[in-house]
Specification:
Elements lengths: L1 H6 L1 H20 L5 H24 L5 H20 L7 H26 L4 H20 L1 H40 L1
Length: 181
């Protein structure tokens, strides 16, 4: 089961590349309106959620955390794309979503640390960053609305780059496993 995770390292790479590209696009098009930010977030959460659900279906380690995060992301994506008029609530909803994702990743990091995974520290850093961002979004929604485009670009870029780094570590393990077989 764990071998499938390492064999499918390329799924992580694709997710990382898409997130990093979307982050760069967002940063270089920061003049966009809040509706555009809502569209970006909706698309990004659908892509991310589909990837997480796919990884759970493919039998990855921590299947339940992948499935839970994927379902939360898919729900947020559908909500943001189907009800763009909820702009005033967006920072709070995104804060809740990011906070839940951060908590799930925190639990994943602890689980991976117990198994001796080399990527547990990456997940831990990412979970802490997401929890801090969630608190900011929930406690200062008006300030968050003003800077949401830049924040989104930075989050997407950082998330994408971390996922790319993790995918290369997973790829290295896959190559070792292939050599052993």
């Amino acid at each position: 089961m764990l071998t499938k995770f390492f064999h499918n390292w390329w799924l992580l790479l694709i997710k990382g590349l898409l997130l990093a590209a979307l982050g760069l696009y967002t940063l270089f098009n920061a003049d966009g309106t809040l509706a555009t930010v809502v569209l970006y977030l909706g698309i990004m959460s659908l892509v991310w959620g589909a990837g997480e659900v796919m990884m759970a279906i493919l039998g990855q380690a921590n299947r339940m955390s992948f499935l839970l995060e994927g379902l939360v992301d898919l729900f947020m994506g559908f909500l943001l794309l189907s009800r763009p008029g909820i702009v005033g609530l967006i920072p709070i909803l995104i804060g809740i979503w990011v906070g839940l994702s951060g908590l799930v990743l925190f639990v994943r990091a602890i689980g991976e640390r117990k198994t001796g995974s080399a990527t547990w520290g990456h997940w831990m850093v990412l979970s802490i960053v997401l929890i801090v961002l969630a608190l900011w979004l929930i406690l200062d929604p008006m300030g968050a609305l003003i800077s949401m485009t830049w924040l989104l670009g930075i989050i997407l870029l950082a998330f994408g780059l971390l996922i790319i780094m993790i995918s290369w570590k997973v790829r290295a393990v896959d190559q070792v496993l292939k050599a052993v077989r």
